[in-house]
Design brief:
The chain is an alpha/beta fold and 276 residues long. It is 33% helix and 24% strand.
């Protein structure tokens, strides 16, 4: 088991209010592909950031258990977390233009990621960077390595981010909306690439997404979140037959090309779905 979380709570407190963003969720991930879906604000991304201990100091995090490969993350020091972040767990954010350094070439940035975890000379790191760009199916990787982030497309920028995260050979990859800013054709290419790399390297994957059809076709299991709670966990292949009314409501709100409707239904919500 790579990730084991039990009864995770995440809250933020202001001078006048206390907001609980995640309300006692549990999840486990092995060498598989887990999809986490739900509306914006449901707690998907904040759960992933809590696992990486990347939340601000104002976040109040409690759990009965939060472990990565048997390591107690609740007690882990910042020094210990630096041995986990990037090296053992990669985190792909949803928009590369906000994650890549605009004043450094792509090759330098991928080389820095490789060298930070594996050492070696600058020459070795750059050779490894070009090889990684080739692994993520970038044509002419040696030429692309000399470009700056603003000189490549969004799809290529996302491939560069994947290359940077794969440089240290992580055991788990967390992808937070990795295809949200891309068109449908490039989305499919990025997902095929991730699927191939995860399978070849024997990694675990947590894919955070709003796209239920995408997750149902790509992942092994799906966890559906709503307002900081887990509504349902189901095999991805069974997602279209989900039983929980919230999951059914999300599925009903998806436009259909074969059965077009004049008006999409409004998602009904019930107070009984939430934990007391």
């Amino acid at each position: 088991m790579l990730v084991d979380i039990k009864n995770l709570h995440i809250a933020f407190e202001t001078k006048t209010n206390r907001f609980e963003a995640v309300k006692g969720i549990s999840l486990s991930v092995g060498k598989e592909k887990l999809g986490i879906v739900g509306e914006s604000g449901s707690g998907k991304s904040i759960t992933a950031r809590a696992l990486m201990k990347l939340l601000p100091n104002s976040a109040q995090i409690t759990a009965d258990k939060m472990e990565f490969d048997g390591i107690d993350l609740l007690k882990a020091s910042e020094k210990e977390m630096r041995q986990i972040r990037g090296k053992r767990v990669g985190f792909i954010l949803q928009d590369p233009k906000y994650s890549l350094n605009p004043v450094k070439t792509i090759g330098v940035q991928v080389a820095e990621s490789w060298r930070a975890h594996k050492g070696g000379s600058k020459k070795q790191a750059m050779e490894a960077a070009v090889d990684l760009l080739d692994q993520v199916m970038i044509r002419n990787p040696g030429d692309v390595a000399k470009l700056y982030p603003h000189e490549v497309s969004g799809g290529m920028g996302q491939r560069v981010m994947i290359a940077m995260m794969l440089a240290p050979d992580p055991e788990l990859l967390i992808a937070d909306e990795p295809t949200s800013a891309l068109d449908a054709t490039v989305q499919a290419e990025i997902l095929r690439l991730m699927d191939d790399l995860v399978s070849k390297r024997g990694m675990g994957l947590i894919l955070i997404s709003h796209d239920l059809p995408l997750v149902s076709n790509f992942c092994d299991r799906v966890m559906v979140m709503y307002m900081g709670n887990v509504m349902e966990e189901i095999k991805a292949s069974d997602l279209l037959n989900a039983k929980h009314p919230y999951t059914q409501g999300l599925l009903n709100c998806i436009p259909s090309l074969t059965q077009p409707r004049d008006r999409l239904p409004i998602l009904a919500r019930e107070a009984g779905w939430l934990n007391p």
